[in-house]
What does this fold into?
Amino acid sequence: MANTSTNPSAAVGRTKASSLSAAVPRIILYTVLVLFCIYYLLPLYVMVVNSLKPLEEITAGGMMALPNEWTIAPWGSAWSTAQIGVDATGLRPYFVNSLVMVIPAVALSTILGALNGYVLTKWAFRGSTLLFGLLLFGCFIPFQMVLIPMARILGLTGLAGSVPGLVFVHLVYGIGFSTLYFRNYYAAFPTELVRAAQIDGAGFFTIFWRILLPSSGPIAVVCIIWQFTNIWNDFLFGASFSDFDSQPMTVALNNLVQSSTGVKEYNVHFAGAIMAALPTLLVYIVAGRYFVRGLMAGSVKG
Amino acid sequence: MGFLDIKQATKSYGPVKVLHETDISVEEGEFLVLVGPSGCGKSTLLNMIAGLEEVTTGDISIKGRSMNNVKPAERNIAMVFQSYALYPNMTVKGNISFGMEMQGVPKPEREKKIAQVADLLQIGQLLDRKPGQLSGGQRQRVAMGRALTREPDVFLFDEPLSNLDAKLRVDMRTEIKKLHQKLGTTIVYVTHDQIEALTLSTRIAVMYGGYVQQLGTPKEIYDNPANMFVAGFMGSPSMNLFAAKVVSENGRTAVEIALADGQKATIPFDKVQGQEGRDVILGIRPEAITDRDGADRNSQNVHVVEARVEITEPAGSDTFVVLQMGGKDVTGRFRADVDVSAGDRFPFAFNMDKAVAFDPKTEERVA
It folds into this structure.
């Protein structure tokens, strides 16, 4: 004790000098990070700002400037009156199409993936590894390769050109990934818990429902974010397998922007593009909060 | 026929046989411990009794009823797992009542049982917590509580204490023994800790390589090991095993043992009479090698051999003294205050009543 307190002022001086030299790399680091942040946010800024301007301000130049006259008219137009395809319906019906497609597709692929993961890890059977390998292989087949066979199957089942058809396509494509997520998560899930539940008298589905699912929060969130983003943003399947009345948002947005008649209403396009991107953004913001680790803590050896 | 009968039970995974024909009959109220090193088949056998693993051939029956095609939940057994296996998403109360809920026990009855068990294990104040908020010892209690609510025919314990720290392990060991005395339920308990096996059990099955090496009371296992594996595995410090030769000296059967300095010691040993000329492995427990005053007064066969002390290891209550015999370090258990130091020549007293002999090749008991 006596030794350490001989010269307190010298000690303080030293810490000051060292904290200053430690701060320099930190300052540089933050400067770089802020610059990157601005760089990445710039497109969003351009989109938001230009969606709130009258068209004349954009065509007059000055994409980067704030609006002189603030207006939400482009948003209204994009949502309900813009010309898409043959009708001037705005994006609204297609937004609804996308929702009707994405919600069941995400829910079903997540639940089936969880069930697959549960069976593949806790009720492994002869050939289950091979089966998992094949499912995994399905994840890596390029979209373009399945277009024609899928079109044939949709035609045969009478689902072609309908929203349920799109749900089916995305479900088939999504199961590979969701199975991969849940299988890897449940592989680390203590098998002893399943055995304890078996001895307690719980059956196959009761164990899944009461023991595994309540502990699957983090991976379910990951899976939902992944599936939602992919299915919502999908363009190829939407463009290939839908009719005018079942087109998803992405295809409608393309039709809005690509329409060759009349003036190009950039402000409306910007508003439409933001609308198309909003749901995925929302899913990240809402679901990301629940993505916390450590929900499993304390179930087994601590 | 016993309460729990294991008849010629085996377990194979494909061509690999992990448990060879096993016969164990357990009486009601017995505390059977399956003990052995990792991979000896003890947990497999326990899982077979629980119904978590299928029996490849043979039969396991409880109360005379064959269990081979009975689901785990319907065997009326309860199991405590090594990792406790508490459901992380449920409270302590939920964990304890889950089994009863699955069996369709009505709620008031469940509440009554939970209160009873909580009282018995003193976990009343923990009922609303999640497993993550409990200490190791508390989780252990909850796991036992969950098992207790079932009032099972047989309790199965799978290394329940191996995740606890040393102090707590000893406390919980005493508690499990008390619980067994209070409830009188039949218990099958798996452990790799031979001290746990000796202290808890009424009978022990020592397992190794998928075989039951020896089945007997703790005393039988300790004093009369069937082979060198059992001799070396049970007891701490373990039994001294070293090479010796059976000779005849002055008309009496004796064993000749090489000492450290090239000399030979000859100790009379009647148990191997008639096997003169044979090489054996002699087994003597540390407590049978003492100084002259510490030797067992009731023994008829205490023989003194003078040998050099290699090292001494004071251990508080005892002092362990190491000498060399038959090319091996041999430990003797001395009183703590014995006056001996390394390098001394010292008269060691061997209690040959407690000595056993094994065949060097088959490793089986010969005397």
About this structure: Residues 1-6, 292-302 of chain A have pLDDT under 50 and may be disordered. The two ends of chain A are 37 Å apart (CA to CA).
